[in-house]
TrEMBL record:
Superkingdom of the organism of origin: Eukaryota
UniProt xrefs under InterPro entries: ECM_structural_protein, EGF, EGF-like_Ca-bd_dom, EGF-type_Asp/Asn_hydroxyl_site, EGF_Ca-bd_CS, Furin_repeat, NOTCH1_EGF-like
Gene label: Creld2a
Record GO terms (molecular function): calcium ion binding
Originating organism: Poecile atricapillus
Family: Belongs to the CRELD family.
The protein's name in its UniProt record: CRE2A protein
Residues annotated as domain EGF-like: 59-98
Gene3D superfamilies: Laminin
Keywords for the protein's UniProt record, in alphabetical order: Disulfide bond, EGF-like domain, Repeat, Signal
């Protein structure tokens, strides 16, 4: 078997999987910019919103950072995979970018 992966035939954000007589390109984990294999522990570089921790890329919880990320009044932070979103607190709704009491 010829190792086609030796010539790096895959695109960015993919890794090469050598098979008998062929190869396939597989997508890197969402937490990786580039990788050497499957999963967040095979990342070469972490995506934005992730940090390398114990040899794998883990999500940064922006809502627990010392500096507040949701600055508007009556707004709560919700952590998402690789990012976060700001939502109106319970009892408030978004009216033209401002959280007003419902």
């Amino acid at each position: 078997d010829l190792d086609e992966c030796a010539s790096s035939p895959c695109k960015d954000h993919q890794y090469c999987l050598n098979t008998d007589g062929s190869f396939s390109c597989k997508a890197c984990d969402a937490s990786c910019v580039d990788c050497t294999g499957e999963g967040s522990e095979k990342c070469k570089t972490c995506s934005s919103g992730y940090v390398k921790e114990d040899e794998k890329c883990t999500d940064i919880d922006e809502c627990n950072l010392p500096e507040k990320v949701c600055m508007n009044e009556n707004q709560d932070c919700v952590n998402t995979s690789g990012s976060y979103k700001c939502v109106c607190s319970e009892g408030f709704e978004d009216k033209d970018g401002t959280c007003v009491q419902t």
